[in-house]
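Annotated sample (chain length 458).
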Amino acid sequence: MPVFGRGQRTKQLESLVDEYVETGLSRREFLRRAAFLGLSATAAGALLEACGGSSASNTVDLLNVWSTEEQASFNAMVAPFKQQNGTKINLESTRDLNATLTTRLQGNNPPDIAILPNPAKMQQIAKQGKLKALNDVVDMSQLQSDYAKTWIDLGTYNGKLYAIFMKAANKGTIWYSPQQFSANSYSTPGAWQDLINLSNTIAGSSKYPWSMGVSSGSASGWPAADWIDEIYLLANGPDMYDKWVAHQISWNDPSVKNAFQMFGAIANGSHYINGAPQSILATTFSDATFPPYKNPPEAYMNYLGDFAVTFIKGQFPSLQAGSGYNFFSFPTINPTYPGTTTVSGGADLVTLYTDNDAAKKLVKYLATADAQKIWAGRGGFTSVNKSVPLSVYPDAVTKASAQMLTAATIFRFGADDLMPSQVEDAFWKACLNYIQNPSSLDSQLSTVESTAASAYSS
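Output written by the structure step:
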């Protein structure tokens, strides 16, 4: 820690404040330099608020989970905004967003905007009083016209809007190569038993039917939870699903155990996944999308939300949508809830933490159809804004996914993403342990149940 005399430090701080006000120095850089001058995070935050919070800056600090192609698409989406407003956007991308955001909030160094992965996290932070309400930031009349009430309600806590659902994901999609299916005379399965039969046929010819990866930093396990969420919804329907999310059904309930075991039929299937179970645990969800398109193929199917397109196109740019890669709907389990019209999904939420005027303008822009059409046109993006037309999607595959999501007669947000964060974490960990040791399932479910009993009672 540098040593400054009191007068010298005062001059240094005055100079820092002047630079912040006059040049648009970012909040994060302001706090970093203030710490170098010996100010605590609390004192630096108070000084920042005293000189206008972040409102004087035309720089926006934005925390997100995107990388590579997704980051490039986001940059393309905000390019018109930056040009029109002269705004600089500092992007910090991390797969450990929850940990990074928690650390920054505890250190009184929040980003201006963070892109959250689920409404449960938003509600948790709003309850702590660390989010800015958006009712006066966005045009509520336009928002109510553009978004279904479901999405507005999901972004609301205690009567105030705290999140905009900008980028949605259809998680009812299983990816494959139509060329390889045709070459091997495979048919896309419409029912769960058809999926198992196809998997056994492929495995029986000494090939691997599936690729799977659940590694995602501190969030490892969520891709497996997505499997179980989708299976539970299609097997039991929306009412039971809602009860599971609300912990009105125990984690030891047979319906929950059955969903895990159906997932296990794939994850632990005989000759289903090369190198399983260790390969599943060690492979990232993005890398797991690649094997069906290698030459020769190293697998034939991969389950992931429709954002898989981004990874597939990034790795295999010459593949053509529809012929080179495509998806089929998650197979029907219970005929009452067809896989073509019963869909689980997710979404990225835009949340605001400071009074930075530039950040408020950016939030308002990100909620618009004009902004979202840019990313939708690049692929790997599904909008729930009703003013974004299907015609903007770049090919038949992304259009079909968007249409499936918007036309679903039953849609539910991923169950784990609606649960308290400690329950979600326990769910993910149970998935990892179950993949490693299927015989431990009863013990894993009991552990999650104990966590849920505590979380839901607090």
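Annotation: The first strand starts at residue 59 and ends at 64.
Annotation: DSSP finds 20 helices and eleven strands in the chain.
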